[in-house]
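Why does residue order matter? Because the sequence determines the fold. Keep that principle in mind as you read this record.
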Amino acid sequence: MRKTFFDSSIRISLSWIALLRIMVGLVFLTTWTSNLLKGFYTSNGLLHFFTEVYPQSENPLGFYAAFINNIILPIRSIFAPFQLVAEFTLGLALLVGVFTPFFSLAGIFFLINTFLATFGHDWPWSYLMPIMILVVVLFTHAGRVLGVDSYLLKRFGERGRLFC
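Structure:
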């Protein structure tokens, strides 16, 4: 009998993974609400975030601090509203389970960047745990349970498989 690294005979209900997807979506939305109320999605708010709350002068990752200071902050009047819309859309999409693979990847990308920007200030597992949850959500297509992706898959069949 041939053994593989992953035992495909073990089954777990996607409902449990869908609940993790919903939880991460809620985390994004509650963080978004908090950041909105703090004014971080404005040009001056983003500047405050990266110079006072998580000062890049204290970021031990010099390459990433330079990226924030030289790329993001000079375009903060464009980047702040983009982040406002992107973070809300990301949270909502994960919450309702629409285009789950795409938004899982987007969430992973977002959390990695946030982890790098706040490196040395936050507990690393605050970012690594949801990243790993989103990796599982990505590979299990958890939007197909308790999500809009289920409807899209039924409606579009094989054509919808890539997106949901």
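The mean pLDDT is 92.
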